[in-house]
Amino acid sequence: MLLEAVANGTITMQDVVLLFSIDGAQLYRNKQSDCWIYIWVVANLGPDKRYKKRFILVGGVIPGPKHPDDLDSFLYPGFFHVSALMREGLKVWNAALNSEALSRIFVALGMADGPAMATVQGTVGHHGARGCRIYCGLVGRHKPGCPHYYPALLKLLGPPIPGCEHDDILLTSIRLPSADEYQENLKLVVAADSDTQFKQLRRATGICKPSIFSGLSRIFPLPLGFPIDLMHLTGLNLPDLFMGLFRGVIKGSTRSDPKTWPCAVLQGQVWVDHGRRVERAMNFLPGFHDHLSLQVCTLHAAHYLGSTLLAESLQNLSGYCHPTSRRDPTWRLLESKELLDKAVVEFEELYYARDPDRLHIVRPAIHNLWHTPDEIVRKGTLIGCTQYLIERVIGELGADIKQPSNPYANLSQRALRRCQMNGLKIMLPYTDRNLKPPGWLPRGAIDLGDGYALLRALDGCARPLPPSELAAFNDFWLLHPELRPRAPKVRKWARLRTPREQVARSAWKETEKPLSRLRMARCVKFLHDGRTDVGEVKYYCLLGSEGQQRAVTLVSVFGPPDMQLYEDSFKMVELRTYQGAQNLLVIDAKSIKSVVGMVPDDMDMAADYTVDYEHLHVGLHYAVVEKMGFTLDAMAGVRDPEMDIDE
User: Fold this and answer.
1) Cα angle: 200, vertex 201, 205; to 5 degrees
2) pLDDT digits (tens, 9 = 90+) for 383-414
3) What are the residue boundaries of the structural domains of the chain, listed by start?
4) CA-angle at 269, arms to 316 and 312, nearest 5°
C-alpha cells in the first residue's frame, strides 16, 4: 500500500510518514499502577535508525490507575496537531537543495495490542461476532448461554445455537478487509435510530463507533491501516495457548478436565524434566539470546520452550509457520500460506473437535496467524510494525521514574525530558555521549569491509599448523595459490563481527573455559558452494601479503540435517551431527551469515559442565537454534553484548 501511495503521488518526497503505536503498562508489580503511552515513529528514516531511542517521538502519557473511560479524548490533542500538519503542512528549509519545502504528514499505520486496537479502531474487539483484528468477513461462534464469540471455522455439534447456525466456513470464502464494506457498515451504525437497533447493527457489523483515525485526512482507507502485531501474537498469545493445552492447564471447560485430554503430555515429571533440559540448554546459546529461565516448571516461562526440546514429547503434533524476517521471498510466503491453511483447520479438528465445551480453545491468535502472509503482501514486512518498540519505550521510561509518590506526573516529565534531549541530540550530535562515530571498532580490531571486522584476542605469533588443519588449508590454497605463505603458519584471531551486529567467537578461546561458565557463540551458518551449511569456528586468521590480506575461517562442518525430521517438523527442526576434526574446511570469513546455537538433541542430565572443556562431542546430534526477532533487536539498537568486549 505504501509503495502504491508513493507511486500515485499521494505521498511526496517532502512528506513525513508516521507510524502510531499505543500500549498500556503496569508501573509496579505489586500495586495497581496502570498507565498508557503512545509514540510516533518516523518511517522516512531507514530501519537502522527509526527504531532507535533518539529518533522515537513520545506522543503522550495517559495516567491511571483506572482505564480511561474515553481513550479518544486523551489522544485528541496529539491527533489535532497531526491533522493540522496534514492540512496546512510545515515549511522546512532544505539545506541540501538550498530551498524551502512544504512538508505534510501521512499516518501510514496504527499499532496497538488487541484491547487497545478495538478502542482505537472503533470495533467490538476479539470477543465480538465479527472480532477479527483486521476486519475480515469471518463470523464467530459462541457457547450456549455465553456471549463471548470465538473465530471457529467448524460448526458446533449438538442443538443449534442462535447466531451460530451457519455451516462450516471455508478459508477461501472469508472476505478480506474492504474499505468500502467498512464505510457502508459504519454508516448503518451511525444512523441507528434506537439503542436496540444499535446493538443489533453492532453485532452484525462489528463496529461500535467511528475511529479517531477517521478524522485524519491523510491516511490509508480504514480499516486497512491497522496491522497484525507479531510481538504479542508469536511471543505471548500462541505460546500461552499451546502451553496451556500441552500442560493441561487451559481454563474454560466445564464438562471435562484439560489434564485428561490426549494433548496434555507435559505434566508431572515430564514437565519438570523438560524444565531442567531448558535450563541446561542455556550454555549452548549465544549471549544475545538474553537470559533464560532457571527453571521453567516453576516460573512458567513458556516463551523459552523451543520446538527442538519439545520434539520428543510432542511427536505427533502439527507445527505452524509464520514469517518474521525483513525480506520474505514470494515462494516462502506461498509456502507459509499453504501451511497455515492446513494448520488452522487441523488445529480445530485436533483440539476443538466441534465440542462446545472446547470452543474457547479457538482463540483469535489462531485466526490472526492465518492472516499474516496476506498482510505481508498488502502492507510489507510485519516485523517492523510490532508492539516490541512501544514495550521497550515503556520499560525505559518506567525505569527512569524517580518519584514513587507521584509516578504518573514523574513519568510524564521523564517523557517530556526525553523528547527535549532527543531534539538536542539531533541538532547537536556531539552532545550524545552514547553515539559512536561511524565505523567505530574496539581497540586492535581490523575492518574487513561489508560490515565484517576481526576482533581480538590475537595470538602472539604465527604458529605451525597441525596435520589435520594443514590438509584443510592445502585444499583452500589449491584454489587460491596467491594466499599461500612461505611456511604453513597462521596467527589466530578469536572473534568476528558480522553485518547483523553479531559476534562469532571461536573454539580457540572458548575451549579454555568449562561449559558451565560459557554462553557458546562459535557455531555459525555460512554459504559454501551455493548452499547453506552449519559449522563450528575453530579460529580466524589473515592470509596473503601485507596490503592484500584476506580473512579466512577454519570451521568444523556439521553433517547434513535429518531431512525426515526437517520435513515432518515443517522445516522448523534442523538436526545435525558434530564431526569435529573429521570434516574441517577453510572458508572466507565473509561467507559467515549468522551466529546460531547448537543444542544437544539427547541432553545428558548427568554430565558435569564444570569439567567439560570440549563442549561439542563427535557423533552427537545438535539442533540449530536461531533467535527469532534478532533483526528487530539490531534495528532498535540492542547490541550483542560481545560487541563491547575489548580483549
Assistant:
1) 125
2) 778 888 898 899 999 989 988 889 999 999 99
3) 2-122+210-227+383-430, 230-379, 446-644
4) 25
